[in-house]
Design goal:
The protein is an alpha+beta fold and 173 residues long. Helix content is 27%, strand content 39%. The chain folds into 2 domains: 1-31; 42-172, Immunoglobulin-like, CATH 2.60.40. It is elongated, with a radius of gyration of 24 Å.
């Protein structure tokens, strides 16, 4: 046998190993419901990029600012009459979102219609939308969030003809 015959075999084995690992990863990601997480309607968002940039510029021109916080988890039993009485109530993770808006002069804005969409990085395909109501400290609303961690909070506020949009990162305890 010639010297060096083992090198082509080793290269072939290395390539076969790489292909094998990639096939295993492909099947593993396909089995995970969040393995191919894509934000809903991402194509439409890409097509409307120019409009999105115009809305961002209009929001920046208003000079408004927003802050957001997510309250701690409270386990709440859901009341579902379809569940047999022998079954325990299902715990749901309810969190309170608080948003404070200020105008360019730093004065609190209390008369706007505000909504928020929360998106977790791991589950971008299932956003949570919360309508916020005005209260003493700004705006507040509750929503069912499946887990703690970092959430992207997309806030839309309307007051008269003014429309303000922003996106914040908020940590849910």
């Amino acid at each position: 046998m010639k010297r060096g015959w083992q090198w082509p075999v080793l290269i072939g084995l290395a390539l076969a190993f790489t292909v094998g690992v990639n096939v295993v990863m492909l099947f593993a990601s396909g089995a995970d419901p969040n393995g191919t997480v894509v934000e809903p309607d991402y194509y439409r968002k890409a097509v409307e990029w120019d409009r999105t940039m115009a809305r961002r510029a209009a929001s920046a021109a208003l000079g408004w600012t927003a802050t957001a916080t997510l309250g701690a988890v409270a386990n709440v039993a859901t009341d579902d009459s379809a569940v047999p009485p022998s079954s325990p109530p299902t715990p749901a993770s309810t969190r309170q979102l608080r948003v404070e808006l200020r105008d360019a002069a730093g004065i609190a804005i209390g008369d706007a219609e505000v909504s928020a969409t929360l998106i977790h990085n791991r589950e971008a395909s299932t956003p949570v939308t919360i309508a916020l109501a005005a209260d003493a400290g700004g705006y507040a609303g509750t929503g069912q969030l499946l887990h703690a961690g970092q959430w992207e909070v997309r806030i839309v506020a309307r007051r008269g003809s003014d429309r303000y949009e922003t996106s914040l990162r908020v940590e849910a305890p």
